Request: fold
Amino acid sequence: MLLEDIALSMIPNVGPKTAMHLLKCFGSADAVFNASMEELTQKAELRETIAKCIYRKETFKEAEKEITFIEKHKIRAIPSYSPEYPKLLKECADYPYIIYVKGDTDLNSPHWLSVVGTRKMTSYGAKACNDIISELAQIFPDTIIVSGLAYGVDISAHRAAMNTGLKTVGIVAHPLNKIYPPRHTESARRMVMEGGAIISEYPTNTNPDRSAFVQRNRIIAGISHGTLIVESAEKGGSLITADIAHGYDRTVMAVPGRMTDIYSQGTNNLIKSLKAEMVCCAEDIANALGWEIPENYQKQDRHTPENANKQYNITKNWENSAIQNKKDTFSKKQTEQLLTLMKTGSTISIDELCNLSGIPINEIAVLLLDLEFSGAIRSLPGKMYIKY
Reply:
C-alpha cells in the first residue's frame, strides 16, 4: 500500500483535499489506481489530465525512488490511516494525506506545544522563550516543543527545548533531503538524535515554493494542543499561524510586551482582540490548555541567585545569536548582490558568478541554495542557474 500512498501524494495538481476526496470515493490509494478512466472522471469528477495520470500510474517510478530514499535514510512515511499519524493533525480539514518523519518521536504523546514568532527576535523575546520552555520542562518533562526551524523565535524554541531536556519537532516546508536554512542543519541533526523529529509533507522530488512555507504553518498549528506566539510585529508569518490555529479551534496564546516595542505589537493586538490568551509563565500555558499541574510542583523564583546564573547563560546565548544575525545581514547583502548580477530569464554559471561577485566558491554555493529555496532562482545541469 505504501507505494500507492506515496504515488497518490505525487500526482500533479492533487492537493490534500483532492487526495481525501479520492479516498472517500474509492476507499484506498490502491483502489484509486485500479479505478477506470470512467470512474475517475465521472464518479470522482476529476479533470481528464489528472485522471490519465492516475490511470497510467505515471507517478509510480518516482514513488519507488522515494521508498528507496526513505528506507536508506530511516525516514518514516506515515499515511493518514496509520495509527502513528498525529491524531490532533487529523482533526484538521486540510491535513496532509501523508507525512515524512525523520526521528522516532511518538506523534501522539500527551503534551504538544507549538512556539512561533518573529525572525527578528529581541533579547526580551529570547528571555521569554527560554524562561517559559525551561519552566515547562520542570512541570511537564514529556512536553514536545514544535516550531518551523526558521531564524529567530523558531530556532530559539528548538534550542531552548533541547537545552532543558525536552524533545522538539521541526516542521519544514521542503523535502527531508535538505534543511532550510542550511545553517540550522546541525540543530536539526541534534533534534533527531535527542529524540525529536523533523516532519515534512513533501517527497524529495518536490521543488521548494514560497507558498509551501504558509502551507507548513497549518501543520505547526494543527499538530499541537496550542500555539504560543512569543514576539511578532503588527504583520508576520506567526500571525498567520495564529489565525490558522484559531480556525482549528486550538488555543492561541501570546506573550505580552511594551506598547512601544515593534515586535510586541502583533502579540499585544492578539491579546487585545481576545484572539489569544496572555501568558507570562508555564503555569499560564498549563491553565490555558487544561494541563493538570502535578501537586508536587513548586514554582521557582526567577530572581534567585541560581536562576540569575541561568539568566546569564541565556543572555550569552542571545549575544551569540546577535553575532549570528550580523552574519546573516552580511549574507543578505551578498544575496542581493548575486540577484543583481543575474538577469531574469538568462542562465549564468556558478564560476561566472564567483568571478563577478568576488564571493568564495564555498560561500556562494550556500547563498545560491538559499535563493533556490526561496524560489528566486532555479539550478540547471552543469552548475548553471536561471533567475525568474
